Amino acid sequence: MPGDHRRIRGPEESQPPQLYAADEEEAPAARDPTRLRPVYARAGLLSQAKGSAYLEAGGTKVLCAVSGPRQAEGGERGGGPAGSGGEAPAALRGRLLCDFRRAPFAGRRRRAPPGGGEERELALALQEALEPAVRLGRYPRAQLEVSALLLEDGGSALAAALTAAALALADAGVEMYDLVVGCGLSLAPGPAPTWLLDPTRLEEEHAAAGLTVALMPVLNQVAGLLGSGEGGLIESWAEAVRLGLEGCQRLYPVLQQSLVRAARRRGAAAQP
Amino acid sequence: MASVALSEAEKVYIVHGVQEDLRVDGRGCEDYRCIEVETDVVSNTSGSARVKLGHTDILVGVKAEMGTPKLEKPNEGYLEFFVDCSANATPEFEGRGGDDLGTEIANTLYRIFNNKSSVDLKTLCISPREHCWVLYVDVLLLECGGNLFDAISIAVKAALFNTSIPRVRVLEDEEGSKDIELSDDPYDCIRLSVENVPCIVTLCKIGYRHVVDATLQEEACSLASLLVSVTSKGVVTCMRKVGKGSLDPESIFEMMETGKRVGKVLHASLQSVLHKEESLGPKRQKVGFLG
Questions:
Q1: Which of A104, A201, B43, B282 is 20 to 30 A off residue B256, Cα-Cα?
Q2: DSSP codes joined into one string, B165-182
């Protein structure tokens, strides 16, 4: 029976009980700073999307879907000079629209769906990292929509979303120069701060700084970089970037295999 | 950002010039344009600053208001950023056009201040869990001439330097009811220490080299830029790649080194200008918007 919401009003705002819990801070366990959590990647699982991918790394679960290319909305843009290699002129290049969403139950506190600034920022980071890899010049006047949904945040969520989005684009058959692989890092505070590769959520919460790197492994080009916090001097950040790039290279074979498996599955399904 | 139409020949001219460390206006790759900073330009704010960097014009106003501290941090105040891209800056910002850019800049500002050392938030606390100072930093983009992030961060640092927050005391009655008392002396106020406030240095990759403080034309020739937020001591608080191109790992390391070098020089000159302006006292000539 529906409750009487008009006369019995619940509180306007609610907080989780953990905020008032006694401070028993569990410190994250010490571990090898270069270990990557085992990754499960599967492409081509959604029937309604042109391309899709699901990525699970430790506790982080991301689902990404790609649709398009469809006709771009938006007004005219001024003409520009033609690019090289038979690609469309600058004004007619395709567009990549990225959307990053966090499920309300993804983190420790419930966050209602219009997540505000943080989701817009991560969606922009997704777009800036994927654009170098996609041959948008081959899709004139079209737009590709990539939407990433974070089901559970177990640490390095943006990196997982980047990798899943690139897999989904490849699964959709979009022309790309290379896959984009993302890797997260965090700086464990303390007397000797060390950068940890692929942090868990607990390590991220206790971290002094965080960094996400996106690499195109075969071309060895950095497609995206986003980091903030008290990371210390430039040398420390440079070391973190190197560690992240190495982690991305190690992740690449897993993604290649998942795409091959997806293609085989599609081939087997096509033959009745 | 505002777009500018460049022909292929102009782009090639700019790229070739940058290879030789000579830009269109005669600067070297690591030189800033002439920066004009003026504080205390708006009278209704707790602090304000105006920065002109070439054709880029930014106005920042800081208002201090009393609010409740956040639940996770009961002993600290906080900062709220809002960036408004005015339609005067470029016709593309008319209506809702400038909102995307405004949110992007505001999110970057949140990111660079998102650590314990930039601003000492504990000085903004009035009484734990109940009252604290909230600093609303509002950035107004008056004219867009390239290199927005750098100019905005310089203006925010100058405005925070200029901010004076009135001293407030919380008096407790015998019954336990709290009363807030504002000090009678209008000059009795808290000033913030901006020693560790970072400034953003944007390095645009053009051809094989990178340039600091790109104009609109140079930004049109560059596919990717690296945004580094650096404090006066050389500590980096934020790093971000901007743009739709990709960067070579080696050039990222070079750009980071340049950013640190240029950032230190920028901080030193900004500090000296701000201190000099302050030392002139109330008798200094205000230029405002007429000069």
A1: A201
A2: EEPEEEEE-TTS-EEEEE
Q: Is it the case that residue B162 has pLDDT exceeding 80?
A: yes
- Out of A125, A128, A230, closest to residue B237 by CB: A230
Query: Does residue B171 or residue A203 have the better pLDDT?
Result: A203
If we measure between CA atoms, which residue out of B58, B110, B33 comes closest to residue A121?
Answer: B110
Distance from CA of B9 to the nearest CA of A (A): 10
Tokens 């899943």 correspond to A164
Distance CA A142, CA A71 (A): 5
Using CA atoms, how far apart are residues B17 and B229, in angstroms rounded to an integer? 27
Average pLDDT over residues A170-199: 92
The C-alpha atoms of residue B132 and residue B66 are separated, in whole angstroms, by 6
Residue A81 has what pLDDT? 38
Q: Which residue of B has its CA nearest to A109?
A: B72
pTM across the whole model: 0.90
Answer whether B174's CB lies under 8 Å from B82's CB: no
Distance CA A197, CA A219 (A): 22
pLDDT, tens only, B122-159: 888 888 888 899 999 999 999 888 899 999 999 999 99
Query: How much is the pLDDT for B64?
Result: 93
Contact B39, B162 (CB under 8 A): yes
SS3 call for B261 = helix
Instruction: Determine whether the interchain pair A237/B243 forms a contact, defined as Cβ–Cβ distance below 8 Å.
Output: no
Which tens digit of pLDDT belongs to each residue from B43-68?
889 999 999 998 899 999 999 999 99
Neighboring chain A residues of B3 at a CB cutoff of 8 Å = 78
User: Which residues lie below 8 Å from residue B116, measured CB to CB, with a gap of 6+?
Assistant: A230
Percent of chain A whose pLDDT exceeds 90? 58
Q: CA dihedral in degrees (A194, A199, A201, A203; nearest 10)?
A: -20
